[in-house]
Write a structure and sequence with these properties.
The structure holds two protein chains of two kinds.
Chain A (H helix, E strand, L loop, with lengths): L3 E4 L2 E4 L5 E7 L5 E8 L3 E10 L2 E4 L6 E7 L2 E6 L8 E8 L7 E2 L3 E5 L1
Parallel strand pairs in A: 2-11
Antiparallel strand pairs in A: 1-3, 3-8, 4-5, 4-9, 5-6, 7-8, 9-10, 9-11
Chain B lengths: L3 E4 L2 E5 L4 E7 L7 E6 L6 E6 L5 E4 L2 E6 L4 E6 L8 E9 L2 E4 L3 E6 L1
Parallel strand pairs in B: 2-11
Antiparallel strand pairs in B: 1-3, 3-8, 4-5, 4-9, 6-7, 7-8, 9-10, 9-11
The chains are: A mainly beta, B mainly beta.
């Protein structure tokens, strides 16, 4: 998975609790992305980062925030998890925009 | 509104046959069109990609055909093998905004 790890790999949480997912890369790529994958929707971009402390919203950013304090780490936070945020979350990295994105192994999140 | 529409949802092909998956996009500003392959429990992996200045790109058994005027592109898998059984996603991108199709589950029967 191109030097990308995601943690945790599985998480079960309750509605209203905060959740933070971590993406860690060892490739020193500039761009990092968070996607969610749901049946019938493919993958949808939540947020992305184009450098340390530089982030922007994607297609489905409501209810999510991100932070990137180091090149190698990109955090996704659900401030108050809802059942609609039950999904598989993928982190991706790329060296340049509109180039190959390399995906991590995913985090399966269940919000009860 | 889904900006990239992919069909079919599922596809069953005999070993040695040709698998064809089609995608259509809305936004003419898209300028990078990758295809990703995903196996169960894994992240998607880039299979092949094309830019709109080219009408066809071939890599081994995989070919992308691109029709800019129709805003359509397709993936052809020649001599399909059971190991090709996976979910395939087309995507269209401009800058950092990549939009994916809903996916096609391909099953290649031996």
């Amino acid at each position: 998975d191109a030097g990308i790890t995601q943690s945790p790999r599985h998480k079960v949480t309750e509605t209203g609790t905060p959740v933070t997912l971590r993406c860690h890369q060892t490739e020193n790529h500039r761009y990092m992305y968070w996607y969610r994958q749901d049946p019938g929707h493919g993958l949808r971009l939540i947020h992305y980062s184009y450098g340390v402390k530089d982030t922007d919203k994607g297609e489905v950013s409501d209810g999510y925030s991100v932070s990137r304090s180091k090149t190698e780490d990109f955090l996704l936070t659900l401030e108050s998890a809802t059942s609609s945020q039950t999904s598989v979350y993928f982190c991706a990295i790329s060296e340049r925009t509109e180039e190959t994105q390399y995906f991590g192994p995913g985090t399966r999140l269940l919000v009860l | 509104q889904q900006q990239v529409k992919q069909s079919p949802q599922s596809l069953i092909v005999q070993k040695g046959g040709i698998s064809i998956i089609n995608c259509a996009y809305e936004n003419t500003a898209f300028d990078y069109f990758p295809w990703y392959q995903q196996f169960p429990g894994k992240g998607p992996a880039l299979l092949i990609a094309i830019r709109p200045d080219v009408s066809e790109k071939k890599e081994g058994r995989f070919t992308i055909s691109f029709n800019k005027s129709a805003k359509q592109f397709s993936l052809h898998i020649m001599d399909s093998q059971p190991g090709d059984s996976a979910t395939y996603f087309c995507a269209a991108s401009m800058d950092n905004d990549m939009r994916f199709g809903a996916g096609t589950r391909l099953t290649v029967k031996p």
